[in-house]
Amino acid sequence: MSENKKQKFVYDFTEGNRDLKDLLGGKGANLAEMTNLGLPVPPGFTITTEACKVYLDSGTEPAELREEVSEHLDALERKMGKKLGQADDPLLVSVRSGAKFSMPGMMDTVLNIGLSDASVKGLAKQSGDERFAWDSYRRLIQMFGKTVLGVDGELFEDALEAAKKAKKVTVDTDLDAPELQKLVKQFKKIVKTDAGRDFPQDPREQMDLAITAVFDSWNGDRAKLYRRQERIPGDLGTAVNVCSMVFGNLGPDSGTGVAFTRDPASGHQGVYGDYLQNAQGEDVVAGIRNTVPLADLENIDKKSYDQLMQIMETLETHYKDLCDIEFTIERGQLWMLQTRVGKRTAAAAFRIATQLVDQGLIDEAEALQRVNGAQLAQLMFPRFDEDAKIEKLARGIAASPGAAVGKAVFDSYTAIKWSRSGEKVILIRRETNPDDLDGMIAAEGILTSRGGKTSHAAVVARGMGKTCVCGAEELEVDTKRRRMTAPGGVVIEEGDVVSIDGSSGKVYLGEVPVVPSPVVEYFEGRMHAGAEEAGELVAAVHRIMSFADGKRRLRVRANADNAEDALRARRFGAQGIGLCRTEHMFLGERREMVEKLILADTDDEREEALKELLPLQKKDFVELFEAMDGLPVTVRLLDPPLHEFLPDITELSVRVALAESRKDANENDLRLLQAVHKLHEQNPMLGLRGVRLGLVIPGLFTMQVRAIAEAAAERKAAKGDPRAEIMIPLVGTVQELEIVKDEADQVIAEIEAATGIDLKLTIGTMIELPRAALTAGQIAEAAQFFSFGTNDLTQTVWGFSRDDVEASFFTAYLEKGIFGVSPFETIDRDGVGTLVKYAVEQGRKTRPDLKLGVCGEHGGDPESVHFFHEVGLDYVSCSPFRIPVARLEAGRAAAASLGSDSR
């Protein structure tokens, strides 16, 4: 930017467009886009995210901001023909947050700015409705007091409830003008007492303070918590939208609502949303009054309904996606207050993506960007067995699907406390508000007795993928007494188990048994996409997976140690086994044979122990190669410390001590104890394990290689197609690999000569130590493939012992923002990722045809899969259940890198 060009901090709605979300935030960019489309948007302007960033960095607003706001306010006043807060006919505005990414209810909004003791009378006269004017003023003081001045919101709520109770009414619309006027006086006293200052009467002071409060709300506790949950960067800042007010609380011919162009829960096309007569927008989202379905608007106001339907079609076609719309009707005049690409359930995401392809609005590559692996994983969770004998308590609105079971809790604090103690909980509220976010995160599911599909609970739960049932009106929730009463007088106390079905809206007493998801049944081949009973969802998943498989470059293998897991993985779409952990084959009854090997004092004893293990190992590999016939199987030689196969040192010491006291000590126990002491290490994960075992215990690795080679030869003789790959673990230097590889090559050559079969076995290594990554070019001289063991690589790069640190301080690191997500869950691109990238580059410099994969748990993590695609790996390997997720994300990564013409 030229030094002479002044930075622009304020944009009129007529100046922006939807591509300026970084600068104008999602709300501001979309208000500008709707204005450009000629839709009825109240005039206003947007203060940019850059202004917010300057404020957050320096503690003061940019010097030019006040002047720019004044210029745009003057222009708005000329356009509207009235001044902000003037006494006779006041211009009123809303001040609303609007970050780049949707953060529903997490930041601040103030409506009706410009009202004062003087202008409220002018508003009453101009509108001809005294009640409306005092209701609007009451709302301003309440919102401004809580949001801007930090007054305890419960004080206002208690005063409002007391006023309704005094009149013996249940809804605020039943309070008349004199009663609201008294409430305004009460609210001003609350502000004076709690905030230590009078409610400001200067309208410009109200607006400026509200703008600053919105900036501050970017770093509010609930906003930071939501960003961590949704992985939204903390340095984006929020825009501020100043919009001329339109009023839905002007009587029965006015109202406010939220609409979706498709059902956000199912994805079905139709008329979906909520409408509330004689109300302002916050009433709908807060769920404090129960709404009517949007379809009812056709009978209430046919003209506005028809116009809204036309606008919704325009917006969906323009954005090529499900749109979430906020609107207000002011005495029969429809106004659009917001649109955004709507949050949706996992099922809806898959259905909508395929529907939009069929409508020609997007292509397959773009359809893949409309879904993600986390959503697919949700669809694979079990669901309730509706044939079970269970007691149904009530039925609400199916707001966010899933089957959630837990103990009833009635506040966020208890939800967090019990969850941290290992309890599964269901958070039950009359309605949720942004302050409940941490409790919602801790809970298995959310249940409310008020609100609809557009309430705070529903919108936030869908965004998080949490099970949610809203608006279960039959339930009487008493948060103070910590209980809920269902029809028939059934009382659910805190701690009682309840089950909620977010797909049907049903609420049950007790724990409901679950059955497999139809999506899992489809992947396992028990339900076919074309079958009638599979339904639309399975058909949509099938199509999206076909898109992904057609686009992806990364192959997907499974981590599997036996034939049963291998066969299941193959049904899930695995293209081989990327990690067979042979140590799992030494457990159970074979542990005694390993003990015998460890206790061997002579070469003969050791040879005898290895001979016993050889046929068992061979049988395992024969079964595995048969299950994965024609596909690669990477077998990792023994990796963990040998002490893992021995008894616990404390238990064994006690046993020996007791036996010695009785003078009947067992000779084998004494030898075992000596071996345990000998092998005991302070930090066994950095001790005698992996390739080190093969180098210090003669014959161990050659026995395993022989078992692999003989099994492969047997399968080939039986006309099978085994494709075994032998992987040496924990290599830190090429010399270690060369020694083991030479021994393995000799064994393989011996078996090939004896059988006359060319086995075509390849030998490679795991890259799981920083030194291995840094010397990958040297190691590639001996290795035909690399598989990145990112679990151990993460431990050794960070200096973390995973088993210890996750329980001890990871929670604090996540809460303090040191981690956005655990580095064991999603790969640390800057640290571990840099080593992976370097090893890939150096390995392929030495050996251009080097096969590269990853077999740590990161192989099934959606975000990590994208990284592995970017750095050029050939495959990822993960647990069988994660294979569909990895397939989908590999397709999404390829589609994203190619780009899409449909955006």
UniProtKB/TrEMBL annotation:
It is an enzyme of class 2 (transferase). Gene3D superfamilies: 1.20.80.30, ATP-grasp fold, A domain, ATP-grasp fold, B domain, Phosphoenolpyruvate-binding domains, Phosphohistidine domain, Pyruvate Phosphate Dikinase, domain 2. Residues 62-290, 298-350 form the Pyruvate phosphate dikinase AMP/ATP-binding domain. InterPro entries: ATP_grasp_subdomain_1, PEP-util_enz_mobile_dom, PEP_util_AS, PEP_util_C, Phosphohistidine_dom_sf, PPDK_AMP/ATP-bd, Pyruvate_phosphate_dikinase, Pyrv/PenolPyrv_kinase-like_dom. Mg(2+) binds at residues 768, 792. Residues 542-890 form the PEP-utilising enzyme C-terminal domain. Coiled coil: none annotated. Keywords: ATP-binding, Kinase, Magnesium, Metal-binding, Nucleotide-binding, Pyruvate, Transferase. It catalyses: pyruvate + phosphate + ATP = phosphoenolpyruvate + AMP + diphosphate + H(+). GO terms for molecular function: ATP binding; kinase activity; metal ion binding; pyruvate, phosphate dikinase activity. It comes from the Bacteria. Residues 423-505 form the PEP-utilising enzyme mobile domain. Its EC number is 2.7.9.1. SUPFAM superfamilies: Glutathione synthetase ATP-binding domain-like, Phosphoenolpyruvate/pyruvate domain, Phosphohistidine domain. Its cofactor is Mg(2+). Substrate binds at residues 581, 636, 768, 789-792. Belongs to the PEP-utilizing enzyme family. This is Pyruvate, phosphate dikinase. It comes from Streptomyces mesophilus.
